[in-house]
Write a structure and sequence with these properties.
By secondary structure, the chain is of the alpha+beta class.
Length: about 280
């Protein structure tokens, strides 16, 4: 803009000089005025040149600043793109973690539900076992020892009470029948429970019995108890097992018969198996 103004001013002044010349420059005064005007024009020219130089310097400075701004803008764009990418990655990672947390919570809920079912099943089993033990204690009183052994309700009867001559006899005697009847009465209240009859013996001779050893004798004695419970007191034979323990079965030298009533672990294990599928 300063350069254009300068040239217009020069043209205007030249036109003015021509006019002056055409009007007949001749006098000294007019010559002097012309000289002054030329000096004035030279001064204006120098001023205009100075302004033009300042404008060029200012334009160069603005150009440098603009280039710096453009560089900063490019850096900001790159930084913004990086931030957007990081934000996207973070969002995806956050979503994955959220999904994993959700899956973990669902797994925990499932495990908690399974544990509750196991605990409920155990509680039911323990309740049945406790009720059974209480029933036997109430019915038998001091007629037999009752307790828990390896989770099973166990009734212990002396073989001298069941068979009298423990070294020779393997048939249940008459006086033991009332006690077995009481046991059968309780067993009928729990028709789904398994019954295990275990007997040990420690006879030294078998000449009169025509038996080989205590394995034979204890097995026959256990079978005799099972037979009485089945035939006399109508306990289902499918529920019964007879096991002879010989002289190696129990601690000590006393011969006894143990009637073990197993809690309903079959249904409990079935429940666990179903949950593990």
């Amino acid at each position: 803009m300063n350069k254009d103004r300068f040239y217009m001013k020069i043209k205007r002044n030249i036109s003015l000089l021509l006019v002056i010349c055409m009007t007949g420059i001749g006098s000294a005064q007019k010559k002097k005025d012309l000289i002054l005007k030329v000096a004035e024009l030279e001064t204006d020219l120098q001023t205009t040149k100075s302004d033009l130089s300042s404008s060029k310097q200012e334009a160069a400075r603005y150009k440098g600043e603009m280039e710096a701004v453009n560089i900063q803008l490019d850096e900001l764009k790159a930084t913004n793109a990086s931030l957007l990418e990081n934000l996207t990655n973070f969002t995806e990672l956050s979503n994955k973690k959220t999904d994993n947390i959700g899956k973990s919570l669902e797994t925990l809920r499932t495990k908690e539900k399974q544990l509750k079912m196991i605990n409920d099943a155990l509680t039911r089993t323990d309740s049945v076992t406790l009720d059974l033990l209480t029933s036997f204690k109430n019915v038998l009183g001091t007629d037999a020892k009752t307790g828990l052994n390896n989770g099973a309700v166990t009734i212990i009867l002396e073989n001298t009470f069941l068979f009298n001559e423990v070294d020779k006899n393997f048939a249940v005697v008459e006086r033991a029948l009332p006690v077995l009847e009481k046991i059968a009465r309780v067993l009928k209240q729990q028709p789904n429970l398994k019954i295990l009859v275990e007997t040990n013996s420690n006879a030294l001779e078998f000449k009169e019995l025509k038996l080989t050893d205590n394995w034979d004798l204890s097995a026959l004695q256990a079978a005799s108890v099972v037979r009485v419970l089945t035939n006399t007191y109508a306990i289902s034979p499918e529920r019964m097992q007879a096991i002879g323990k010989s002289e190696f079965g129990f601690d000590g030298i006393e011969t006894t018969t143990k009637i073990r009533v197993q809690p309903p672990y079959d249904s409990f294990y079935k429940t666990i198996k179903e949950m593990m599928k």
